[in-house]
Amino acid sequence: MTTMPAMHAAVHILKDEGVDVAFGCPGAAILPLYQALEAVGGIEHLIVRHEAGATHMADGWARTNGRPGVAIATSGPGGTNFVTGLYTAFADSVPMVCITGQAVSAKLHQEAFQAVDIVEIVRPVTKRAVQVKEAAQIPWAFREAFRTAREGRPGPVLIDIPVDVARRGIRYDPALDTRLPVPVVAPHPPRVEAALDLLLAAERPLVLAGGGVILSGAADELRELVEYLGVPFQVTLMGKGAVEDDHELHMGTTGIQTSQRYANASFLESDFVLAVGARFGDRHTGADLSVYRGRRSFVHVDVDPSQLGKVFEPDLGVVSDAKLFLAALLAAAKARRPAGAGHGAGHSTRHGTHHGTRHSTQHGTQPSAWAARCRELKRTLTRREDFATVPVKAPRVYKEINEIFGADTWFVTAIGLYQIWGGQHQKAHRPRHYQVCGQAGPLGWEVPAAIGVKKALQGMGRGAEEVVGVVGDYGFQFTVEELAVAAQYDVPFVLIMLNNAYLGLIRQASAGYGMNYQVDVHYDESGTDHVKLMEAYGCSGRRVADPGEIRPAIEWARKEAVATSRPVLVEIMIEREADTPHGPDIDAVRESEPVPER
């Protein structure tokens, strides 16, 4: 066996696991790993300006290509700055491997400089957290970290390495090593048949696709199933983009915030829901579960057994990978009901395009009355977007986004009123192309995440594809320093900012308390000059105040990003105290603007 420094072995394993770029910030306790990165080569490294930025970059990288992203930090505050990013990845099932340096082993009990028990700190927000105490364990710790990050419901893993352990040599031969196997959970056939029984017996069924459908690569299986049976389907916020929004059977997203009027209406009229890879988050179900559950029956499919029954008890629970379940259900449906039977089932042909999206029509049978009813709801229960007033109304921004960008554009967006407007108005066309931090909702996620997305695309040979971050003015300032990373490493993308100079979502929530206190962040004439901030980091931007200026500014930004290989900002000044449609339950969403007549 070959003898080499333990950290050299770690780098060989990172490369074998598909890592071509890592994001991090060096410090004394992690220098043996940086020495190995330089000596072994083959992994690009981007030095971040804050360790939280490293985790968000690794997060965006992983969401784009499906492989575990890697973030690196030193001991003490370097590791503790990882917590928000780990929580975000854990909440949204994003595979990551985070590596932290640690003080010398013999000093850990003596409160040594920057010695902190990072393993215990992050345990609640990781799938696994471990401190390596013997150098010989390093190869196995890294292999197990990648397997754990990938298997079942994906998520983050943290490896903590004392600097004395990292300096040692071990016996390791890369030629004799390989990845650990990742088992895939197949569904129990009788449960597949039982799920099909319930689906076919329903008069008004819906399929609900969550983020698990995207994570398992099950978009094609979902499409084929709903087209074969003619069953309308919805997506959760995390499932957005699994199938294009314009698909004739796509009934949007039910919820109390990021939802469409027709989605809530069709859900409330349904009598059966097949939920695949969805966790029934409270912004989807609303506060009163009796409204959400109603008299409809539920089948809940999830790769993680602990998800079944966590929010409410389904009529049938199935433990399975989403892709394998949908494939098995389709096979069972075809065996039981040949083309031409069922809920409008038949042979589908795809025709027409909208930004490259595909539509299907059924041949050989008339569409079911339920599918026709859903299409009518989608046609009539809409919201306005064609506002021409000044200041700009936010829905107009998303109208422009939908018309300007093609189906291959990659979007990242985080938390605030703009996340809600985006969920309501922005269309998605491809799996993984609409990335949103759905549960944790950390402010400042978009800029570093966009860097990670672009680096992943470059590694996939698709670096020419556009990346767009839709941001708010307040959250943008949380990680604005990471613009320096994009400028230093020539990472271009477009930022579209909805600026109301407010903590808009909290201002709207504050109304319930009868106050508008400490949520106004504007000063002087219009508050922070974000265009000058961009320029301070060697980037560029424009401010827009009229809806007619939005499209020219975005088109300029797209060209400028390519020309400069750096981020470009379009700052759009929107209504300062505009509200989003919002409500406590899916049958009680209050509209903030007059809606088109039905």
Gist of the model:
The protein is an alpha/beta fold.
Describe this structure in words.
This protein has 598 residues and is of the alpha/beta class. The protein is built from 24 helices and 21 strands. α24 links the parallel β20 and β21 (568-573).
Q: Report the β-strand fraction as a percent range.
A: 15-25%
User: Given the structure, what is the number of helices?
Assistant: 24
Q: Runs with pLDDT <50, length 5+?
A: 344-366
Average residue pLDDT: 91
Features:
598 residues; alpha/beta; 6-stranded parallel beta sheet; 21 strands; globular
Strand and helix map with partners:
Elements: E1 3-5, H1 6-16, E2 21-24, H2 31-40, E3 44-47, H3 51-65, E4 69-73, H4 77-80, H5 83-91, E5 96-102, H6 118-122, E6 128-131, H7 138-150, E7 156-162, H8 163-166, E8 169-171, H9 189-201, E9 205-209, H10 211-215, H11 219-229, E10 233-235, H12 261-269, E11 272-276, H13 282-285, H14 289-293, E12 297-302, E13 316-319, H15 322-336, E14 347-351, E15 359-363, H16 369-380, H17 394-404, E16 410-413, H18 417-425, E17 434-436, H19 446-459, E18 467-472, H20 473-476, H21 483-488, E19 494-499, H22 504-510, H23 530-536, E20 540-544, H24 550-564, E21 568-573
Parallel strand pairs: 2-3, 2-4, 4-5, 5-7, 6-7, 9-10, 9-11, 11-12, 12-13, 16-17, 16-18, 18-19, 19-21, 20-21
Antiparallel strand pairs: 1-8, 14-15
Helix pairs in contact: 1-2, 1-7, 3-5, 3-19, 9-15, 11-15, 12-16, 17-18, 17-24
